[in-house]
Amino acid sequence: MKSGRLLFIVLLLSAAFPVFAKVVINEVAWMGTQTSAADEWIELYSDHEWNLAGWTLITADGGTKINLKSSSSTANYYLIERTDDSAVPDVKADLVLPFGKGLSNDGEILILKDAGGNIVDQVDGSNGWPIGGEVANKNTLQRAKNDPLRWITAVATPKAENAVWVARPIEPKPSPSAAGSPEKKSYTRAVNMVTDENVQGEQNNSEYLWLLGGILGGAVLGLVFIMAKRLSG
């Protein structure tokens, strides 16, 4: 029984805290750099020792096929540059070769396969790279450092830790009165709550004051009648 419970806890924790696969596509500069749109680059990441000999990185449409070349390495990052080793200044590339026609700004699906042809990782950036990256400032598509399952747009970090994803604060919605809509007003009538959502101008409260006065007046008269009856008896 105890071993069964322990196995359940281990599986639960594994699901709650996803880890990297041995090798993943980690960052993509599909838009190039400020120097040239042709200076595209792709970064792979691994937290294990790896050997990429015989591996390929392709696009789903077949427009790009990169044959990776590597001996065993304990480095965490593997940088692939399209044009030359100056595409990313001051950072040495692990592989430099043409990307065919390059990565389309209209979107691509990148697929990483091992030497046996098995899909190790895949990034779906079809339909305009909706998962990250942008052209104007040449910010790249990155896996969030604190959430590897989430893709973000951030300043390029070649061969360095990626940016951290931060949730945007929820902005409070303006009240109806601030937006120019009629303000909701509530009034108590006996034990019921009445809410008027279409109040135009200033509300007249005389009806509710009259009703309250009538109720109190009736109660007082009833009490006087009972006391008078008891005295007369």
Give a quick set of tags describing it.
233 residues, four-stranded antiparallel beta sheet, six-stranded mixed beta sheet, Lamin_tail_dom_sf, transmembrane, single chain, 2 helices, membrane, transmembrane helix, alpha+beta, signal, Immunoglobulin-like, elongated
Distance between the termini: 82 Å
Number of strands: 12
The helix-and-strand class reads alpha+beta
Low-confidence stretches: 6-20, 183-217
The CATH homology group name of the largest domain = Lamin Tail domain
> What is the name of the CATH topology of the largest domain?
Immunoglobulin-like
How large is the radius of gyration? 34 Å
Q: What pattern of helices and strands is seen along the backbone?
A: HEEEEEEEEEEEEH
For the record, what CATH class of the largest domain applies? Mainly Beta
Number of domains: 2
Relative helix content: 10-25%
Name the assembly state. single chain
Percentage of residues in DSSP E strands: 25-35%
InterPro entries: Lamin_tail_dom_sf
Keywords: Membrane, Signal, Transmembrane, Transmembrane helix
Commentary on this structure:
The chain crosses the membrane at residues 208-228. Keywords: Membrane, Signal, Transmembrane, Transmembrane helix. InterPro entries: Lamin_tail_dom_sf (IPR036415). Residues 1-21 form the signal peptide. The model is unreliable at 6-20 and 183-217 (pLDDT under 50). This protein has two helices and twelve strands; from the N terminus they run H-E-E-E-E-E-E-E-E-E-E-E-E-H. It has helices at 2-16, 206-232; strands at 24-29, 41-45, 56-59, 65-67, 77-81, 95-96, 108-113, 119-125, 140-144, 147-154, 185-189, 192-196. Helix content is 18%, strand content 26%. A six-stranded mixed beta sheet has the order 6-5-2-1-9-10, with no helix packed on it. Strands 4-3-7-8 form a four-stranded antiparallel beta sheet, with no helix packed on it. It has a two-stranded antiparallel ribbon with strand order 11-12. Strand 7 and strand 8 form a beta hairpin. The chain has two domains: 15-154, Lamin Tail domain (Immunoglobulin-like, Sandwich); 185-232. With 233 residues, it is of the alpha+beta class.
